[in-house]
Amino acid sequence: MKRRKFLKTTVVGVSAGTIAAPAIVRAAQTFSWKMTTTWPPQLPFYQVGPGSAEGMAKNIEEMSDGRLKIKVYAAGELVPWNGGFDAVSAGTVEMNHGVAYYWAGKRFAAQYFGTVPFGMSYAGQTAWYYHGGGLELWNEVYEPFNLVAMPCGCTGVQMGGWFRKEMNSLKDFQGLKMRIPGLAGKVYGQIGVNVKLLGGGEIFPALERGVIDAAEWVGPYQDRRLGLHKAAKFYYTSDWHEPSTTSELIVNKAAYNKLPKDLQAIVQAAARDAHVTSYTWAEAYNADALEDLVKNYGVQTRQFPPDVINALRKVTYQTLEEEAKKDPMTRKVHDSFMAFKKKHDVWGNLSEAYFLSIR
Amino acid sequence: MKRRKFLKTTVVGVSAGTIAAPAIVRAAQTFSWKMTTTWPPQLPFYQVGPGSAEGMAKNIEEMSDGRLKIKVYAAGELVPWNGGFDAVSAGTVEMNHGVAYYWAGKRFAAQYFGTVPFGMSYAGQTAWYYHGGGLELWNEVYEPFNLVAMPCGCTGVQMGGWFRKEMNSLKDFQGLKMRIPGLAGKVYGQIGVNVKLLGGGEIFPALERGVIDAAEWVGPYQDRRLGLHKAAKFYYTSDWHEPSTTSELIVNKAAYNKLPKDLQAIVQAAARDAHVTSYTWAEAYNADALEDLVKNYGVQTRQFPPDVINALRKVTYQTLEEEAKKDPMTRKVHDSFMAFKKKHDVWGNLSEAYFLSIR
Q: What integer pLDDT is reported at residue A25 of this predicted model?
């Protein structure tokens, strides 16, 4: 690597109008890549805007002075919304932007790199990725698929969802028709909820017409975009199910390995940049949207009763434990996550949680 | 800019051993910069390690393939620990890594870009910088000094400090000899504390010999390094005074403007990368250190009594309000910060704070 670079490098004179530093002529290789995503076109936070898929691609192009150009395709434009994992694995496209829990059907362990119900919020989850072995495990789980993975965004704590009636006890969940996908849906099913799977565009009409009684989506900003506040008035905060949903960048390993070291470093830094940029964007815009929903639309915020939270926590831990028993890799990831959480929760209670109670 | 780049660019043939993409020959200008810091050499988190001053400089060098080299000087190696602001302003060095509240004597408003007692923790503070107008105000305050400023690290919520005796009421603070600098020291002074200013190296011997009764430093990881747990057993969590201490990168504006756009983008992204990398490093290593301190050294964690917290909050707000009355720029920054905090606190209570109470 060093030798090739030396052969390509020639020191030339200083150009007019620049400061007195040597100029180096390099043969800069350019790369034109494709990134698929799991998101609709124009969806803020995920697809467009600061820290999104397109935002990250633009950042990479600017940092590389155009040497790594990434064309971003929304869901369905090149492959179906959930086709990105296989496409990147096969090398048909170089990158996909999504959430790891979409691939939990392939490897259950992927759930831990999306978000874990009753798990950790942004601080702990991200600390686990970067400094607690989580990112290494993520890449170990994806090793058979020729992928390099990294976190590149976070929604923060999501909301519990929209309910047409107040929920006063565990009994109120019996037979409740609720739109809730993934692991959380599985858990709700076990406490008696009639779980419905609907795409984003189907939620509002179903909730408005009473075809469903409740629906979970993301948080104030995204939920307002779907108009859910016009279909149900009670907004439950008991955001047990997705405390830190992490956006995922996966890169085809062979393509990644062909990048020179500086472009690899740029991709890695752009993903970390997007992780904090998108998280804080969500914090700012959710605060705005929540104020708007309460002030201007009469939305009422609520918390689930303690017996509901306790039942959900119990079923969640049972479910995770059952999955961990099924294969050694899930066991390994589960144990790493839980050991980190146990230690970090003690610190979090003493620092962040305490501060939030006195500020 | 576009035209100059075009004149310098020549498309040449594809080199052997590379993929089928055009190679571009560019005259790449290199820059050799100096970064001073306010930190001792080898201090983890601040000076060395992931997300530190040296970590960020290394990241920039890697991303730029050596076109922007930054030599990092610890406190006293080139200028005194607090000489970096003036040196960067004068252009003697190009960058300084420190904390904005060190410059609160020059402009009180700088306090808000360090951390605000009873203010916001990482999520809200960072959201204010990136998406709530905070970063624009930071640069407006520094405009007369020819500086470009950006956040590049965060300690997270700091600890209240080490006390040789338990603190059971406001009365126990009367005449208490405590090492506590800055705005927090000013506030403690107003509730009767005998405030002592000591450098990092002086704290342990003073606390051990009883010359002082209490001392604040950073958090479990940094405090253990100073050995403070061997001088006092009660570790108070009531981290009201520094909820999100932000590391600051300042760059001489003329030097920054001479960088091509790609290197400017790299510096900006490296700072955001360091911001999240260092924060989560602190979260992971503080969790570790706290466990060690409690398990292996018999450290006892405590919370300040509510009357103490209430008195400190009241005096803090009075002090900030007095400063805001003194000059229009402080007023402007104070009002922006407090308006953002008010809105974000509502969202934070519903999301992060609630989740931390049920996880």
A: 64
Where do you find CATH 3.40.190.10 in chain A? 161-240+297-358
Q: Kindly tell me if the per-residue pLDDT of A336 is higher than 70.
A: yes
Per the listing, tokens 């279909």 go with: A231
Give pTM, 2 decimals: 0.93
A62, A345, A355: residue with CB nearest B265? A62
Q: Regarding the domain delimited by B161-240+297-358, which CATH topology (the fold level of the hierarchy) does it fall under?
A: D-Maltodextrin-Binding Protein; domain 2 (3.40.190)
Burial code (b: 16+ CB inside 10 Å, e: under 16) for A208-239 equals eeeebbbbbbbbbbbbbebebbebbbbbbbbb
Domain A31-154+244-284 has what CATH class?
alpha beta
For B158, which residue in chain A has the nearest alpha carbon?
A351
Q: Are B50 and B86 in contact (CB under 8 A)?
A: no
Query: Cβ of B42 under 8 Å from any chain A Cβ?
Result: no
Q: Which of B4, B32, B131 to mutate to test the interface with A (most CBs of A within 10 A)?
A: B131
Q: Nearest by CB to B283, which of A123, A260, A277?
A: A123
Whole-angstrom Cα distance, residue B65 to residue B212?
Answer: 50
Q: With contacts defined as CB-CB under 8 Å, which chain A residues touch B11?
A: none
CA distance B199 to chain A (A): 24
Instruction: Search chain B and give the residue with CA nearest A254.
Output: B19
ipTM rounded to 2 decimals: 0.93
